Amino acid sequence: MLRRGGGDLPREVGVLAVVAFVVALGFGIVAPAIPLFARSFGVGTTAVGLAVSAFAFFRFVSAFAGGSLVERVGERLVLAAGLVLVAVTTGLAGLATSFPVFLVLRAAGGIGSAMFTVAALALLLRVAPPTHRGRAAATYQGGFILGGIAGPAFGGLLTTLSPRLPFFLYAGFLLVAGAVAMVLLRAPARPAGGAAPAPAPAGEPLSLRAALRTRAYVAALVANLGIGWVLFGVRNSLVPLYVTEELGRTAAWAGVGLLAGSAAQAIGLLRSGRLADTWGRRPSLVLGAAVGTAAMAVLVLPPATGAFLLSMATYGLAASLLASVPAALVGDVSPARGGRVVAVFQMSADLGAVVGPLVAGWLTDVASYQVAFAVSTAVVAAGLAAALAIPRR
């Protein structure tokens, strides 16, 4: 372990942040190629959407099994195996010659992604001391954010050269990340004449039923549902259409709004973790949920470009708290190797990412964009209500 005084974090946190960056960078590279490659098989728009959602769906349904596996064999092996599984299926998907084969490989990749995500977060929360758990979660999320910003720019360029090329590059990135995880996440040896490394938290994993009886864990689930609903779902699916159809702007303005949100989140993560550790989990979560609710409520107002940009940037700041504080709460509730507790936490965000775009899209069709954003605001506000219900201690 690295020295924990003065704000230092365990060595594993830095390794996991680097792995997260590589994974997000590769995913961002392959994301623009997926719909184009699927369309090259001569399928319709619905099938293209199925190719995109199959990964997320199988990631969601397999997460709980991944959590059980973590409790049996440990985070490191599950993490590396998940990365290898995604790498192999992604590489083979780039070689696919028919749409059914491509779809099956994408679905299998979702299983590997669930294994990696659950194992990485479970390890992060287990090794981080309670006084640094918020900072550890923020550092880990920062790796994902930076990789997610850089990846799509390269992906668009590579896709113009060949829609298969991003799949092979992403597979290579994942193999590198898996090798890094296997080598650098080994338990550090006891230094000669020095103190032994700090032991991992002892005790049996907290049962899921016991975790669900705590208000802190329920608040973490509701807040994570909102993050998945807005950040990974509605923002990516509805916002581009809102900008072009409601604001009458070009798609470039949608990119500006999304970039403003990501940049604000990256900047906010520099402080959000420390705030969660020093000010406290409850007030930090209340602040993040309140700001996030206000940011989404702005989109319910009559359309205006300035209000849209303000909403995106403000929600990005809120997301820096909503992406780190709930994870720290899960670690507080289950400091031992709680694979299933972490898995359900991750599933809550995945559920929001799957259901959010569907509900918001339907509401837009039958009512308006403002109604869809109002429902999304209510989902974020539910996280605020749950945060206020956490005991003050």
Automatic annotation (TrEMBL):
UniProt membrane topology term: Multi-pass membrane protein
Stretches of the chain forming a coiled coil according to its record: none
GO molecular function, one term: transmembrane transporter activity
Domain Major facilitator superfamily (MFS) profile positions: 12-393
Transmembrane residue ranges: 12-34, 40-65, 77-97, 103-125, 137-161, 167-185, 216-232, 252-272, 284-301, 307-329, 341-363, 369-390
SUPFAM superfamilies recorded: MFS general substrate transporter
Gene Ontology CC terms: plasma membrane
Keyword Transmembrane helix recorded: yes
Keyword vocabulary terms for this entry: Cell membrane, Membrane, Transmembrane, Transmembrane helix
Keyword Ribosomal protein: no
InterPro entries: MFS, MFS_dom, MFS_Efflux_Transporters, MFS_trans_sf, Tet-R_TetA/multi-R_MdtG-like
Subcellular location: Cell membrane
Protein name as it appears in the record: Predicted arabinose efflux permease, MFS family
UniProt source species: Geodermatophilus obscurus
